Amino acid sequence: MTVMPSLCRAVLAAAFVSVPVLAFAQSTPAPAAAPAAPSAAAPVSPAIRAAEARVAQRIKQLHSQLRITSAEETQWNAFADVMRDNARDMDEAAAKRADGLPTMNAVDDLKSYEELAEDHVDHLQKLIPAFQALYDAMSPQQKETADRLFRGRAEAHAAAAHER
């Protein structure tokens, strides 16, 4: 078995399973979280700020759509924290890749994409347990809503990919 087929399977599995979750993660904010102060050594780019705002908005939207109760806030906060961390990491990884693209040859480009795919899988491995804990605490109605929301986003992404 070669690395490429197993990588392709991992990327495809991650894409089909996680697109809705990462979309939630990369566009949802935490209701009570204060933005971190940028350090003098590493200024935050406007693109990163915009991505953080999208994530914060998505977190807020999902919190409302799922009707998270006070009893579920602990699980919700853990899930939202993982979403924010994952989104920040992926934004940084994508920016790093984009910065290097002008000097990459075709093999380097594929390797950098492989690194992104591996990061994606790593982030899913952190996100799934956090969401599982939240999902387990939800009422049947909330679970139905979550299933519908996630399935709808996955179907929309699949349809968009099919149109390309």
Nutshell version of this structure?
Helices cover 78% and strands 0% of the residues. The longest helix has 32 residues. The two termini are 30 Å apart.
Q: What is the fold's blueprint, element by element?
A:
Elements: H1 3-25, H2 46-66, H3 73-100, H4 106-137, H5 140-163
Percent helix range = over 70%
Please give the largest β-sheet.
none
Q: How many H/I helical runs? A: 5
**Number of structural domains:** 1
CA-atom Rg in angstroms: 17 Å
Mean of residue pLDDT values: 79
Decide which structural class fits the backbone. Answer: mainly alpha
Number of strand elements: 0
Taken in chain order, the helices and strands follow as: HHHHH
Shape: globular
N-to-C span:
30 Å
Describe what this molecule looks like in 3D.
The protein is mainly alpha-helical and 164 residues long. The chain has one domain (17-30, 46-152). Helices cover 78% and strands 0% of the residues. The chain is built from five helices and no strands. The protein has helices spanning 3-25, 46-66, 73-100, 106-137, 140-163. Helix 2 (46-66) runs antiparallel to helix 3 (73-100) and helix 3 runs antiparallel to helix 4. The two termini are 30 Å apart.
